[in-house]
């Protein structure tokens, strides 16, 4: 089993309204949310705000669904600056983080590559 990637983390920007660049390579690491999942996420963010910071690294983000919803609805969000040694490390971290958040089948997990 591989060791978990542990990034250095720096300052969170409170209540940020900023423009982030979504790297398609990071966006496409996982299958897109189903409409029902996206609707539930939007309902939660609308009701409670964006509680999970959007991870930012080298112009790429983890949290593009949250980011899009917040931008469209004018909801403030926090960012968390991540530091990785390479794009591969960043992708591995994003995959591991998302696997823990989503209900994915073994086949879907097997299809994920960095």
**For the largest beta sheet, what order do the strands appear in spatially?**
1-4-2-3
Distance between the termini: 16 Å
The largest β sheet comes out as:
4 strands, mixed
Count of the separate structural domains: 1
- Number of helical segments with 4 or more residues: 5
Counting DSSP E segments of at least 2 residues, the number of strands comes to 4
Helix content: 40-55%
State mean pLDDT (0 to 100 scale). 79
Written as H for each helix and E for each strand, in order along the chain, the element string is EHHEEHEHH
**Backbone CA Rg:** 14 Å
Features:
114 residues, alpha+beta, globular
Describe the secondary-structure layout:
Blueprint lengths: L7 E9 L7 H4 L7 H14 L5 E4 L2 E3 L1 H10 L3 E7 L3 H15 L4 H6 L3
Parallel strand pairs: 2-4
Antiparallel strand pairs: 1-4, 2-3
What does this structure look like?
The protein is α+β, with helices and mostly antiparallel strands. The protein has one domain (8-111). It contains 5 helices and 4 strands, in the order βααββαβαα. The chain has helices at residues 24-27, 35-48, 64-73, 87-101, 106-111, and strands spanning 8-16, 54-57, 60-62, 77-83. A 4-stranded mixed β-sheet has the order 1-4-2-3. A hairpin with a 2-residue loop joins strand 2 (54-57) and strand 3 (60-62). It is globular and about 35 Å long. The mean pLDDT is 79.
